[in-house]
């Protein structure tokens, strides 16, 4: 990802295109955390580190364009924070036009290595994840809760 510059779109797999909006962006909120507003995804979260902001687009199995908008970052010890919202061009949550489900909180691993939250809106699904992928442990519960519950909807995703 680091070799894709801001504003550049590049194929990262067959039929999968990535556009980098910002690298290592900052928008301090005063206590070491940052307000991470997605450039095109119409959502924001709070993150405790500078963040990348990008979009991935591809075709669903029913040939509808899908876009995943992501803001997130990693510490040097690979503690990963990410918020991704997935939207289909037709505004459905899937080819079967399912209705939004309830918020879900999940914990992965014993001992836990990741905490996640998924939120369905009428026209997109968002997944927030904090995951210990390396030497850094999971953050304290207060930090996990702050991040997982900071999701704000700010409009409709850009097409």
Please name the defining characteristics of this protein.
159 residues; mainly beta; globular
Number of strands: 11
- What string gives the helices and strands in order? EEEEEEEEEEHE
Report the C-alpha radius of gyration, rounded: 16 Å
Look at the structure and give the mean pLDDT.
Answer: 93
Runs in which pLDDT lies below 50 for 5 or more consecutive residues are none
Number of helices: 1
Span between termini: 22 Å
Largest sheet: 8 strands, antiparallel
Percent of sequence in beta strands: over 45%
Structural class: mainly beta
Short description, anyone?
The chain has 159 residues and is mostly beta strands. 5% of the residues lie in helices and 48% in strands.
